[in-house]
Amino acid sequence: GNSVTQMEGPVTLSEEAFLTINCTYTATGYPSLFWYVQYPGEGLQLLLKATKADDKGSNKGFEATYRKETTSFHLEKGSVQVSDSAVYFCALSVGYKLSFGAGTTVTVRA
Amino acid sequence: DTAVSQTPKYLVTQMGNDKSIKCEQNLGHDTMYWYKQDSKKFLKIMFSYNNKELIINETVPNRFSPKSPDKAHLNLHINSLELGDSAVYFCASSPGTGIGEKLFFGSGTQLSVL
């Protein structure tokens, strides 16, 4: 079946630190890959996406590259801010269904 | 204007009751969804409708019944509520069938069953 595995949290960082959240996937066919972010008390928002191998998605200083050879879509940001504190979800879409990973809680301290 | 709005935001009820959560989107999207998020933040899709037709129906107890009167609305009715139904329920929509598309989420309904 189609599934996403992402690193467990919680992750706690200091401001301006480098953030990496690992995500690997298993899929039949050619999935589209996404990162969604959920700020406290809110619904999920799309952060970035990539629809084919070697595509790089980027937004708000975050980046992720679709790596077919390693079935990965790791999220990175070079210098985090307190406002980046949220839950981050890796997700894949094959056909109609969007399947989410378990979410990684990130806390950035000033 | 809120793009995907769901009501109520909080719902506290007793076991055995029947309750409904309403969802409306003003984006003109064709597809709507219900997701359940448990206390560990794990998100699981429950249902999806495309132009009022059911296209995803995951393994969900038949106490849960979605209803889509038109493509802008997808309501969730839950019969005989159980403690394990306590969760945050998110409505979402997408422009087409959702294949490779961005989903737009509502802000969630926190259901607490006592």
Summarize this structure briefly.
The complex is a heterodimer of chains A (110) and B (114). With 110 residues, chain A is mostly beta strands.
Write up this protein.
The complex is a heterodimer of chains A (110) and B (114). Chain A is mainly β. Chain A has strands spanning 3-6, 11-14, 19-21, 23-26, 32-38, 44-50, 56-59, 62-65, 75-77, 86-94, 97-100, 104-109. Chain A contains no helices and 12 strands. In chain A, the strands form 3 sheets. In chain A, strands 2, 5, 6, 10, 11 and 12 form a 6-stranded mixed β-sheet that branches. A 4-stranded antiparallel β-sheet of chain A has the order 3-9-8-7, with no helix packed on it. In chain A, a hairpin with a 2-residue loop joins strand 10 and strand 11 (97-100). The model of chain A has no long low-confidence stretch (mean pLDDT 94). With 114 residues, chain B is mainly beta. Chain B has strands at residues 4-7, 10-13, 19-25, 31-37, 43-50, 53-57, 64-70, 73-78, 87-94, 104-105, 109-113. In chain B, the strands form 2 sheets. In chain B, strands 2, 4, 5, 6, 9, 10 and 11 form a 7-stranded mixed β-sheet that branches. A 4-stranded antiparallel β-sheet of chain B has the order 1-3-8-7, with no helix packed on it. The termini of chain B are far apart. The mean pLDDT of chain B is 92.
